[in-house]
Amino acid sequence: MTVAFFGSTTILYFLYPLEELPPHHHSFLGVAYDTLLLTFFEQPIPFVDDLRLIPVFFGFAHSRASGHRRRCGQARQSGGSYQFSQEWQKLVAASYQNHVIICGLGNVGKRVAEQLLKFEEEIVCIETREDSKFIAEMTRLRVPVLIADATRASVLEEANIKQAKALMALTDKDLNNLETALTARELNPEIRIVMRMFDQSLADKVKNSLGIECVYSASALAAPVFAQSVVSENLLSSFQFGSTLVNAYQIVIDEDSRFAGMKIDDVRKEYEITVLMHDRQGSVDWNPPTDIILTLGDKLLIVTEADGVKDLLALEKLT
Question: What's this model's pTM, rounded to 2 decimal places?
Answer without folding.
Answer: 0.62
